[in-house]
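Usage example:
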Amino acid sequence: MFYRENGQFKTTYRADQQIFPITQDRFAVLAIIAFAFFAVPMLADEYMFRAILIPFLILSLAALGVNILVGYCGQISLGSGAFMAVGAYMAYNTYVRIDGMPLIVALLSGGFFATAVGMFFGIPSLRVKGLYLAVATLAAQFFCDWAFSRIGWFTNNSSSGSVAVSNLQVLGWKIDTPVEKYLFCLGFLVVFGLLAKNLVRSAIGREWMAIRDMDVAAAVIGIRPVYAKLSAFAVSSFVVGVAGALWAFVHLGSWEPSAFSIDRSFQLLFMVIIGGMGSIMGSFFGAAFIVILPIFLNQFLPWAGDLVGVTISTAAVAHTEFMIFGALIVWFLIAEPHGLAKLWSIAKQKLRIWPFPH
Amino acid sequence: MKLRQLALAATVVAAGLSGALTSSLASAQAKEQFFPVLSGRTGPVAPNATPWANGHNDYMKLVNARGGINGVMTLVEECETAYATDRGVECYERLKGKNGGATVFQPLSTGITFALTEKVPGDKIPLITSGYGRSDTADGGIFKWNFPLIGHYWVAGDTVLQHIAKKEGGWDKLKGKRIAVVYHDSPFGKELLPIVQERANMHGFTLQLLPVPAPGVEQKAIWLQIRQQKPDFVVMQTWGVMTPTAIKEAVATGYPREKMFGTWWSGAEPDLKDVGAAAKGYSAVMMQHGAEPQSAVVKEILEKVHAKGQGTGPKDEVGTVLYMRGVVGAMLAVEGVRAAQERFGKGKVMTGEQARWGYENLNLTQAKLDALGFKGVMRPVSTSCADHLGANWARVHTWDGAKFVWASDWLQADEQIIKPMVKASADKYAAEKKLTRRTPADCQS
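Running the assembly step on the lines above writes:
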């Protein structure tokens, strides 16, 4: 009843080409962005910002990047952690080696170098597909792990191999409180989210999807696989690289290569699979599921135990958390193999015909 | 159908969250000094980090049984990090404001220490990193909030090399020798390297650096390399599951255990128990304490905590190496608060900022330590504004097949070498961060 596009006539090309063609969607997105920018800073406490919201925003951004490659272009990649690492370390090097380097330029340069590395490791995608490509991209992961822990130049010859940045500021705006960090990340996420949303419905986005659905057919109708695949690697790596730089600069402050280990690559891939492949919204759902659920379980279990008068030991909580988390992943994948985003679109469909489903 | 399930799940989640928030608010009570514990009861270091947490918590219970810190009871809450830096940071954020504010954090992970070093100055909470973390944080002039009390990696590295030199009959005998360093390929492992490199340059022995990727369960290639090249000694900077793996590989490749020396984190019972008699002869350097089942404090814990059924862990681990490390860590944390109370008011709950002053002005004389039950366990510790280390003594113990026995007298790390290294490294950190050294006035705060 409320969510229904009947009567919304598009009388201009502009109206027809909007990112969100349905008025309700447009308002909902605007409302969510406004809520995130204005209401959340007033509602959330420091713990929420630092432990939940900031990691959620940054990993959403990374998942968005991975989704472009895996979900839209169909190129399975296990190198996302490596591209995050490239973003983080190259942003660090740009930031500390060049005096007076503005923060945003440094972060974007991290994305730029990640793009270069991503395209390089994307070259095998021209020959190998599917799981074989996943194995090929593992090379990126292992190479970057090796490079950042072995080559002293990347860590500014730090003896421990751990690097740190502080005193972040943009045009005199000092980013040190959790709220400021949150807003900074949110700014990046909104810009990249809208860009990605716009990109995937453009010519190049359609090329990616054509390649994903059937690359031979796509080539027959005149889509260049080299261009489509490498551009997906480039865009994806750029976004992932910027997310890596943000993760290092804003969230961790001090990091080592293990922050971007193979586990991170898997985590990002799972976010995309659980959230929904080929869906911008899915990236957010996936990130929320993977970031927030374990922390929630970790706090909820002792609390639930107290409720019934049982004290659960720290180790037992950690083990139970893993078990429940694993079970939930399996359950979600069985209940909805297309990811949480599919649930979302089913919900929208139901809303459209509500209250008369038949 | 699916919608309903989803709505149901959302309600449960919301209810849980609000409940968790209110419960954390309600527990803020007066007269309790809150000591958060970042535990590692799961993950790659669980066998070693679990006794640490048990020892820490048992000593806190003992303090309460003794009547608290001038009447202020200790309160402990754990958060599980599984040795992962991101979870550690989350735990820090979760615990730092709870129960009236955290007194001090002991992360028990070098990775987490690096991350928290950036955060604690803003939150005004001190960090105690006994034997791990950044070695250069011993320089209190730059690192106001970090306390690597009673030792860090460079102290351990220096004393283990001293022990080897002594066994050989002097530093000059090491000339031309080859020492392999098997280390965890992370900041934890790499932090050791500057001191061994410095010593290698001074005394003319060659180093063979052998990094092992985390968590350290794949070492076959490295030990085959050791077998082939036959270094004169192997120094191990290992932790968690990595240590027993290394010793098993050494047994398999036939490298003599008498020539293997671990640093502070590489020589505890969980590492050697499974190998048992085959590990006989393996030594590790211990800063201050080792396994101390006969010490007064252990007897008191058994009597006042375990006998009442309040023990945190199994009774038979009381007094083992890592259990004692937890006890010593807790003791240092408590004594800092006691020192702070002398200045800011006896019988009051100290804030993190006040406790920091206590850690900086710690003066644990032998008499005080003996009274606390640490006779024979520890030597005096005294810190100052410039020196956040407090003591640099160590001993070496050797595994006799079933337990550890002391194999050396007290060794003191050479400050002539370590001090300039600490200062240079701290100055480099300060230059990167654009920090200035603390003024004498700041030392009084």
